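Batch manifest line 286
LIGAND: hexanoyl-coenzyme A
JOB: complex structure
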Amino acid sequence: MFRTDLFKGKRFLVTGGGTGLGRIMMEKFVELGADCVICGRRGGVLEETAKAVMARHPDRRVETHTVDIRVATAVEEMVDRIWATGPLDGLVNNAAGNFISQTKDLSPRAFDAIANIVLHGTFYTTNACGKRWIAEKRKASVLSILTTWVWTGSPFVVPSAMSKAGVAVMTQSLAVEWGRHGIRLNAIAPGPFPTEGAWARLNPMKEGDDDRYKARNPLGRVGRPSELANMAAFLMSDEVEYINGEVIAIDGAMGIMGNGTFSSMMAYSDDDWRRIREQIQSTNAT
Ligand code: HXC
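JOB STATUS: finished
ARTIFACT:
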């Protein structure tokens, strides 16, 4: 789908890139010629991932930094250390935190646990990179991983929905503010992509797992991680530089399915539709 040297000479930071979707996106960038930096809270996990990816791509470099992005000074130090070995050309804000809970049961600390990662941490990382790019007059691309709840909200994940909506607005605001510096910001709003971490926190009752999404998704399935990785590579590429300030859903149209007045009719059979047509046409004749 892509030129294998698409990202030759590029260096991207992927937050939370040691596991899950962050790892999958990072591996795609490396496969297309990029060097990557991954950061997260668990050094061992990052190291293991970096080793495995470099073993498959011995000519590429995957660097690791142990950091908690909720701590602004730690983010600043990490970005300093990254820049000491060379500048970045892009950032993927993938690190997140989430769990389902009734909102009335959330303590202020529970709200902060999510908001500090998603809203604050994403801002700290984006601004730490952005100010260096601006000072160096370096073109760059920022991609944030959101969810379709940024448009609709969602019950039981209110801190995440609020925080990710904030990152969507950051994407639009900075796309305008930083566009003149050659820095563009976009975001992807994925629907359900099963990863170990997300599923453990968001589907604890294991309700039919993937089957649960068959009836609720126009494509009748959950997302394939490779589809997200392809979208991320597309948006990070210089070939689509004119895309700036966009939040693009990748969910099989699940997010807009409930909005159509007639969406519930998806379950009707051809026979149902034949009867409906006859009934409507007989009404027309009278
Ligand atoms: C209610 C909870 C809770 C739960 C924690 N808390 N879990 N409250 N229900 N299930 C409360 C605690 O009681 C405490 O408040 C406060 O939150 C902080 O808890 P800690 O355990 O001290 O927090 P911490 O160790 O910082 O852990 C952060 C975390 C954790 C977010 C809670 O889950 C984490 O580190 N997650 C990172 C990875 C992750 O979540 N990945 C999934 C992302 S998926 P009190 O008041 O009691 O002290 C995603 C999008 C998916 O984002 C989209 C799918 C469509």
